[in-house]
Specification:
This protein is mostly beta strands. It has 3 domains: 3-70, no CATH class; 80-106 and 140-538, YVTN repeat-like/Quinoprotein amine dehydrogenase (Methylamine Dehydrogenase, Chain H, 7 Propeller); 554-672, Sandwich (Immunoglobulin-like), CATH 2.60.40. 13% of the residues lie in helices and 38% in strands. Strands 8, 9, 10, 11, 12, 16 and 17 form a 7-stranded mixed β-sheet that branches. Strands 36, 37, 38, 40 and 43 form a 5-stranded mixed β-sheet that branches. Strands 39-45-44-41-42 form a 5-stranded mixed β-sheet, with no helix packed on it. It is globular and about 80 Å long. It starts with a helix and ends with a strand.
Length: 675
């Protein structure tokens, strides 16, 4: 049905209030044949079969309209795709909107056997980029996805995802939805204020959350003010190579306040970045020693500080040699940043969690968790205050701009404001954690002469954190839909034990009608934090990896042909002392070689090429007893390396049901005992 048809049906249904059930005129056909009939019939011709479904499920007219809005017949494509972090699952989810169907889990920081991520030598090398002092890390806490942008609009090329626990950043190429790079910040133990990109993806923003001595050094908490520091980081991204360039990246040392979220300027504010912070009290806890708990100590002041950073000027200082190299990262020390007009502070209410730049780049929306208002700063007023010169500094010498000097407006929304997104009609949407609600409010200034007003609130279930609107943090929001990423799902779904799913709720936010939730999506695999929603037609994913006449076997990580790619008829086994090199292929329905015999203690380098060219002709490869699980996409080569340390006979087989002879796609790995 078209949008106009849906609205006509909605109006007809609402005229026929449900009193003890719906008559035939208020019924909506469902299923293949019935749905086709609906497209031809008026609401007065709706079927008895659908009416029975509506009565049995006790559906309201709003329920029926919501179902039609989100229903996506087989073979039809969603208008949008949402990329969501997964929290401590360490991955990224790709979800269709409005259907809310999950299309892909993108493996990032955690090994994932279905995709073979973390089992091949190629993907092990990606994970190793996030090692800490040589220690392998096999989990992560992903928080904020960031799609690459061109001129402030999502371009569908790359996705970045930060990792809170270990202070890491990853690059995902959306050509094949595969993680290509993980970098570890050498100075931060953990972080939170990332990933956020500049309007043309020159830089990816990151910042610590819990200050420590920079560079994994030790200092007692009694020396917190003297030895502990924050760091605002700008990772340089090379679009041609699709990689972060650590040697061209830099950080700006800050006072030991806890950074939370960030956003990059756009339009008139391009070249500037903004991180908010909490715990300007510099509380360090110590309950057992008689000190106030951390959360009490960090919530004493009515104001914390927004960090305003001129990153273009910072880059000039780095180029001029004004930065200090600390463990491989260029750092502009705090005194230099303060003196050279790189770093400023603006008081912001209380315990802030989100800073979000409006689509026109003129305003910054601050959400203070312990303040019922959102606070709006004018970027121009910030610039005017900088030009006049700050008369106040914090105890670390960083200039403080006046709150009233930067203030544009405040709008009272409710309890626990967290995050804000925008639509294309001049409205903003803010999540209210304590109210478990979404607030719609009007932007003022150049958007609306009569703005800065609360329009409406709608409950969500429950304890909403981040929200995501289609293009809602870009210069060109789409409107239509918003997703609330709710932390709790009490009483929403069947019992599944003490660990309950998260609940992603889809809201219809078309500005000509009241907001309303239209779909509940339980998510039983990790906690989503933040998401971004992009138009589906901007995603240009490939169907298979390249193959040429004389060249086969693509290395998905390097983006070039694999040095050990093997064509059909070129399969072989080569022995060099105790090293066995295998050059094999997989295709429907054969693994070649299908017998491999080695001696105990041999080192095996097994290179496997999927020589299929057809779309979705993926082959899995598992080897019993060796902790090996691969996914070989069409045209791809991967390598496994291991020591045959235990005599025995070990079957291997394809895990993807690829053909009628799938079960026969198998072989034997034999390890002969010594002697």
């Amino acid at each position: 049905m078209s949008e106009d048809q849906l609205e006509r049906v909605d109006r007809r249904l609402n005229r026929r209030r449900l009193i003890g059930g719906l008559g035939a005129a208020a019924a909506i056909p469902v299923g293949g044949a019935l749905l086709a009939r609906t497209q031809q019939a008026s609401a007065d011709d709706m079927s008895d079969a659908a009416n029975e479904i509506i009565q049995n499920r006790q559906l309201s007219p709003e329920d029926v309209t919501a179902a039609l809005t989100t229903y996506m017949p087989s073979g039809r494509m969603d208008e949008f795709m949402m990329f969501s972090s997964s929290g401590h699952a360490g991955q990224v989810y790709a979800i269709g909107v409005p259907s809310m169907r999950t299309y892909r889990t993108i493996a990032v920081y955690t090994p994932e056997p279905w995709q073979g991520y973390g089992f091949s030598e190629e993907t092990k090398a990606v994970l190793a980029g996030g090692n800490i002092n040589g220690k392998a890390i096999h989990h992560g806490d992903t928080h904020h996805v960031a799609l690459s942008e061109t001129d402030g609009v999502y371009d569908g090329q790359y996705l970045f995802i930060n990792e809170k626990t270990h202070g890491r950043m990853a690059v995902v190429d959306l050509e094949d939805f595969a993680t290509k790079q993980i970098v570890k910040n050498p100075l931060l133990v953990s972080e939170h204020g990332g990933a956020f990109v500049t309007p043309n993806t020159e830089y990816i923003l990151e910042a610590d959350q819990y200050p420590t001595p920079l560079g994994f050094e030790y200092a007692p908490l009694s020396e917190y003010k003297e030895k502990y520091r924050g760091l605002c980081v700008l990772w340089k991204f090379n679009r041609e190579t699709g990689r972060i360039v650590p040697e061209e990246s830099f950080g700006i040392e800050t006072p030991p306040y806890s950074h939370d979220l960030a956003d990059a300027g756009k339009g008139p504010s391009d070249g500037w970045a903004f991180w908010n912070s909490f715990n300007t009290e510099m509380a360090t806890g110590g309950v057992l020693d008689g000190n106030p708990p951390m959360e009490i100590g960090a919530s004493q002041r009515d104001m914390d500080y927004l960090h305003v950073v001129n990153y273009r000027k910072a880059a000039e200082l780095v180029a001029a040699g004004r930065a200090e190299n600390m463990k491989g990262m260029n750092v502009i020390r705090m005194d230099v940043a303060a003196a050279e007009g790189v770093l400023f502070l603006v008081p912001e209410p209380k315990s802030p969690h989100g800073v979000d730049v409006t689509p026109n780049g003129e305003y910054l929306v601050i959400a203070g968790k312990l303040d019922p208002h959102v606070t709006i700063f004018s970027f121009q007023k910030i610039q005017d205050a900088i030009a006049r010169g700050a008369t106040e500094k914090d105890e670390f010498g960083v200039p403080i701009l006046g709150f009233q000097d930067c203030l544009e407006a405040q709008v009272e929304l409710g309890l626990g404001p967290l995050h804000t997104q925008f639509d294309n009609q001049g409205y903003a949407y803010t999540s209210l954690f304590l109210d478990s609600a979404i607030a719609r409010w009007s932007l003022g200034g150049s958007y609306n002469s009569d703005g800065w007003k609360l329009i409406e609130k709608v409950p969500v279930h429950y304890n909403v954190g981040h929200i995501s609107a289609a293009g809602g943090d870009t210069v060109q929001p789409d409107g239509n839909f918003l997703v609330a990423l709710n932390k709790w799902s009490v009483d929403r779904f069947p019992p599944v034990g003490p660990l309950l799913p998260q609940n992603l709720q889809l809201l219809d936010i078309r500005a000509d009608k009241p907001m309303r939730p239209i779909y509940d999506k339980p998510l039983g695999y990790g906690e989503p934090h933040y998401a971004q929603i992009i138009r589906m037609d901007k995603i240009k994913a490939i169907d298979a990896y390249p193959q040429e006449k004389d060249r086969v076997g693509w290395n998905a990580i390097t983006g070039d042909y694999h040095e050990f790619g093997t064509a059909a008829g070129k399969e072989r086994i080569e022995r060099d002392g105790t090293t066995v090199n295998v050059f094999g292929t997989v295709w429907r329905s054969r693994i070649t070689p299908d017998v491999l015999e080695v001696n105990v203690g041999d080192t095996i380098n097994w290179h496997i090429t999927n020589i299929e060219k057809a779309k979705d002709a993926t082959h899995g490869f598992v080897l019993g007893g060796q902790d090996i699980s691969l996914s070989l996409e069409p045209g791809e080569t991967e390598t496994i390396t291991f020591v045959a340390d235990t005599p025995g006979v070990y079957p291997y087989y394809c895990t993807e049901f690829c053909s009628a002879l799938h079960i026969e796609m198998a072989g034997y790995f034999l390890v002969k005992p010594a002697g």
